[in-house]
Write a structure and sequence with these properties.
- With 468 residues, the protein is of the alpha/beta class.
- The protein is built from 17 helices and 15 strands.
- Strand 9, helix 10 and strand 10 form a beta-alpha-beta unit.
Length: 468
């Protein structure tokens, strides 16, 4: 796509939007650069000039990104007059933003580095988008011509971008290393709820353990801090070790996510699996209560086969779950290969979300798939767990079809391991009548969303008696 040029006045957003939507003429490179120099540099002689280079802009449109810049500048500056004039050169793949104080903001020196650095840190951490940037700056003097000034700004912006990439890489990796080195039990658990069809009660049987704590609230957030040149399998192993060491003497069945490729690459021998088992015992964890969830991810086998590696674990009593198991899931081959070592099928929500009135064929197909899962589970003496069940009717539908295990926020949100350990034996035998009342009344549903633990809410409502 040819480079384009736009001048964005404080109140001139319509013209800029038209440029990006290609409803006006596209300039060739030389014309675009010439127009950019003439407006950005020649018309702002004597003002400080900032040239920002932006690459790899993701999950946000260029026009939205540029319009957000003045607000970002205001966040890090206290001056009364803060308006800036912006000029844009480039396309979606790479573009330059020329920034100068507006005529109505005399003497204003915008902190562009601080503004964009703050934005970059926030969007990267929150995964609301991402971008790489570098900034060149100079006082626009009266001696050098616009070409000389432009070339100097471009050179400085490119160098700053490369410096930023190196600095960000080390900053993020150091923060990730701090997380792994921290001895605090930085992890959270999503409880597993079991419905007993004979007693008609709900009980916590264990939980799935995730990255969590002061530095990171999710696995994705931690992975976002890992530079692209790092061995992701090694990082995944460190995460597994970290959350296991966080689980000291935690009761119930504990589940940990791991990719098949990481198992193959990092546990190629029985000796390494023996060390893994020793780690569990050191943390007062029963290997028979440990389950590794094989996430749905392609993997390559060479001399070492996934089945052989999993057999090492299985000999210690460690079992496996097929994560996000659905109609179109790639996990089918894994469960066929591993056979009896698979002790759990985690149903992808798509397998039970269809309602008969919406699509009769899909509903029947998914109903048949659930029956298929039940037969597979019976063959392996395995359980079926439904994830992301978000309403009472769907849960009762699944119970009617012999799916009795759930991981769902309508019961419990993720909780700290300390809270889980302290309250594990209190979160048992919740009557179906209490669950029906809480999940069928709008005001109680809202309270449950706020409180996040149906056992605590039922206790506070007097629907169950406290344990003595």
């Amino acid at each position: 796509m040819p480079l384009r040029f736009a001048s964005l006045q404080p109140n001139g957003q319509v013209a800029f939007r038209a440029i990006l939507q290609k409803t006006v003429e596209n300039f060739g490179f030389s014309d675009a650069e010439k127009n950019f120099r003439n407006t950005f540099i020649d018309k702002n002689r004597g003002k400080p000039l900032f040239l920002m280079l932006v690459e790899n802009l993701r999950d946000v449109r260029v026009d939205e990104f540029v319009r957000n810049i003045p607000d970002q500048i205001k966040r890090v500056n206290d001056e009364e007059f803060q308006s800036v004039q912006m000029y844009v050169l480039g396309d979606e793949a790479r573009f330059y933003v020329g920034i100068v104080p507006s005529d109505d903001a005399p003497g204003f020196l915008p902190n562009i580095d601080g503004a964009m650095g703050k934005l970059h840190g926030e969007v990267t951490k929150g995964k609301k988008g991402d971008f790489d940037f570098g900034i060149g700056r100079t006082q626009c003097n009266y001696i050098s011509d616009s070409q000389e000034i432009f070339e100097e700004l471009v050179r400085a912006a490119h160098k700053n971008l490369q410096d930023n990439l190196v600095r960000w890489s080390w900053t993020y990796l150091n923060r990730a290393n701090d997380y792994f080195a921290d001895i605090n039990p930085n992890a959270v658990v999503q409880p597993i709820i079991y419905f007993d069809p004979k007693k008609e009660t709900y009980s916590v049987k264990g939980g799935e353990v995730f990255v969590g704590g002061d530095l990171y609230s999710s696995y994705a957030e931690l992975i976002g801090d890992i530079p692209k040149d790092q061995d992701i399998n090694r990082i995944e192993l460190l995460i597994l070790e970290k959350i296991i060491t966080s689980c000291y003497d935690i009761p119930g069945l504990l589940k940990f996510n791991v990719s098949p490729q990481t198992l193959i690459d990092t546990f190629p021998s029985a000796e390494k699996v023996f060390r893994f088992n020793e780690l569990l015992l050191k943390q007062k964890l029963n290997p028979h209560n440990i389950r590794l969830e094989l996430i749905e991810q392609p993997y390559e086998e060479t001399a070492i086969k996934l089945k052989d590696v999993c057999r090492y674990f299985f000999q210690f009593g460690i079992t496996f779950a097929a994560d996000d198991f659905g109609v179109k899931s790639q996990s089918h081959q894994v469960i066929l290969d591993l056979g009896e070592m698979i002790k759990e099928f985690k149903l992808d929500p798509i397998s039970f979300k269809f309602k008969p009135e919406e699509d009769q064929t899909k509903f029947l197909d998914n109903l048949a798939f659930i029956d298929y899962c039940i037969r597979l589970a019976d063959n392996r003496e395995a359980i079926i767990t439904a994830e992301a069940v978000d309403d009472y009717d769907t849960m009762r539908f699944l119970i009617a079809h012999q799916v009795f295990y759930f991981q769902s926020h309508i019961f419990c949100k993720k909780m700290s391991l300390a809270y889980f350990k302290e309250n594990f034996y209190k979160m048992q035998n919740l009557p179906e009548s209490a669950v029906r009342k809480i999940l069928s009344e709008d005001d109680l549903i809202l309270r449950q969303k706020e409180q996040g633990n149906i056992f605590d809410l039922a206790l506070s409502l007097g629907l169950i008696k406290p344990l003595k």
